[in-house]
Amino acid sequence: MEAINWHSFFFLLFGLAAGGFALAVVLSGNIVRMGFYLIMSLGAVAGLFFLAGAEFVGAMQLMIYVGGTMVLLVFGVMLTARGPFVSMKTPGGQWVLATIVGGSLLVMLLHTAVSVDDWRVKAVAEKAELSEEPPEVELSETTNPDRLGMALVGVRSDQPDPRQPAEEFGMSGYLLAFEIVSVHLLVVLIGAAYLARTKRVGSRD
Amino acid sequence: MDLLTEPVGLSHYLVVGAILFVCGVLCMAIKRNALGVLMGVELVLNGANLNFIAFSAPYLRADSQYATGLDGHLIAMFVIVLAAAEAAVALAIALNYYNNHATIDVDEGDELKG
């Protein structure tokens, strides 16, 4: 018997958790339980990020998503979940329609995912055999917060020299997007605070 | 047992991403609670994010020269930040809706129906 590939083992663990809890979110009718299942699913996705070599993004996923966005959602659930709104049933007809549409979408996506040879396990394994020695992972090749931060301010350390005009295409950093996101966050902060002010029912105008 | 002894490829990640995406779309379509719809949006964004991360990892695929590298990570981070902003605004709208209609059922908000 071959030795267990631990990367695959943990992938299976996190992948099953992510998919299973996502399915539980869809099937559960209770909004509080849905929130809990969603937290578990997002945490498992963070584990998949770590496995794919995106440590920093995985940490961000845990901190911003699981720690921030989900707290916000749970807040909303707490403020609105009373009596009949905790668990609302969906009519059976909508379930049937949704299952048909979702099932066909899933089939199409899965077909696309497995249809490219270079993305499959066999090709990856053959490539590993071809290059007899195990691929060297240099420390500078791993993604670290430094390189991400440099790219955010517009300097790409992972690309060839951007000063040469021939290599310039498509090598920009993300400075503009970074600035737009920061302004966007400010607008959202003000807008959300404005929208969420308490108003009495019936005094709309 | 093949899955335990063989290395995983890009396809595996895409399969998990597709499942998350479809679950999110279903959630958005059938949930009557506005916050349930929001949770569906989060699932969709996560499925897309997982694909971005998987495509940027060079050792998951045989054609590793086409891996998106740092770009995928950066876009995934932008998606996470924008998802947080979107959740804040959507939650504020949901609370407003709840205050005005005294319900959180999205089917009740049908003033625009002709």
Task: Describe the structure in brief.
The complex is a heterodimer of chains A (205) and B (114). Chain A has 205 residues and is mainly alpha-helical.
Instruction: Give the C-alpha Rg of chain A.
Output: 23 Å
Query: What share of the residues of chain A does DSSP label as strand, in percent?
Result: under 5%
The residue fraction in helices of chain A comes out at 55-70%
- The 3D shape of chain B can be described as elongated
Poorly predicted residue ranges of chain B? none
State the name of the first-level CATH class of the largest domain in chain A: Mainly Alpha
Number of strands of chain B: 0
- Largest interface, C-beta within 8 A: A-B, 97 and 81 residues
Main sheet makeup of chain B: none
> What's the end-to-end separation of chain A, in Å?
74 Å
User: In what range is the share of β-strand residues of chain B?
Assistant: under 5%
Distance between the termini of chain B: 57 Å
The helix/strand series of chain B, from N terminus to C terminus, equals HHHH
Report the top-level CATH class of chain B: Mainly Alpha
Task: Outline the structure in words.
- The complex is a heterodimer of chains A (205) and B (114).
- Chain A has 3 domains: 1-87, NADH-ubiquinone/plastoquinone oxidoreductase chain 6, subunit NuoJ (Four Helix Bundle (Hemerythrin (Met), subunit A), Up-down Bundle); 90-134; 144-200.
- In chain A, helix 1 (6-27) packs antiparallel against helix 2 and helix 2 (31-51) packs antiparallel against helix 3.
- Chain A is mainly alpha-helical.
- Chain A contains 7 helices and no strands.
- Chain A has helices at 6-27, 31-51, 55-80, 92-114, 121-130, 145-152, 175-195.
- The N and C termini of chain A lie far apart (74 Å).
- With 114 residues, chain B is an all-alpha fold.
- Chain B has one domain (2-107): Orthogonal Bundle (Helix Hairpins), CATH 1.10.287.3510.
- Helices cover 70% and strands 0% of the residues of chain B.
- Chain B has helices spanning 2-5, 10-30, 34-56, 70-101.
- The model of chain B has no long low-confidence stretch (mean pLDDT 87).
- Chains A and B meet through helix 1, helix 2, helix 3, helix 4 and helix 5 of A and helix 1, helix 2, helix 3 and helix 4 of B.
